[in-house]
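STRUCTURE:
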């Protein structure tokens, strides 16, 4: 019983301390790189469903990967995330209906994007979630790679020419 009272007190303290975070938040995460960028929100009990928006830019073509974590303390402090979707520069909309197992959005071009996190608050005093996202750039061939490829093609051409001459 003492543990339940502590959980309730912790949930109430977290909710009270972070109630200033609005539902439907719009937050700029800046330019994503290979380091993890954190995002999240604390929501009050009066919020039933929500969609939080996070904008970011990609400075290189590639993919974006990440995941979410729901901070749940029984029926008192609980959020259920239903989807994570991405829209922006090179895509119209792509959606992941199970964001708790991670998400990946591939074949993205350099540009600006918007990540939307949708869910509902089921806790009596509210709930919270936390997420992390990072970019993985598509490898760009180095000049040496092109040089080696050209040398290999020239070698194949010479062998073909020799065989033809015989």
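SEQUENCE:
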């Amino acid at each position: 019983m003492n543990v339940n009272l502590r959980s309730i007190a912790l949930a109430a303290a977290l909710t009270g301390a972070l109630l200033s975070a609005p539902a439907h938040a719009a937050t700029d995460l800046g330019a994503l790189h290979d380091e993890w960028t954190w995002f999240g929100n604390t929501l009050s009990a009066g919020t039933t469903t929500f969609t939080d928006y996070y904008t970011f830019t990609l400075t290189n073509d590639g993919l974006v990967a990440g995941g979410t974590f729901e901070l749940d303390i029984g029926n008192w402090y609980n959020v259920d995330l239903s989807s994570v979707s991405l829209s922006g520069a090179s895509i119209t909309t792509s959606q992941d209906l199970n964001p708790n197992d991670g998400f990946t959005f591939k074949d993205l071009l350099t540009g600006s994007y918007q990540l939307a996190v949708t869910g509902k608050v089921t806790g009596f005093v509210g709930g919270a979630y936390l997420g992390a996202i990072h970019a993985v750039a598509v490898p760009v061939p180095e000049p040496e790679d092109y040089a080696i490829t050209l040398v290999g093609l020239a070698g194949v051409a010479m062998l073909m020419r020799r065989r033809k001459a015989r």
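REMARK: The radius of gyration is 24 Å.
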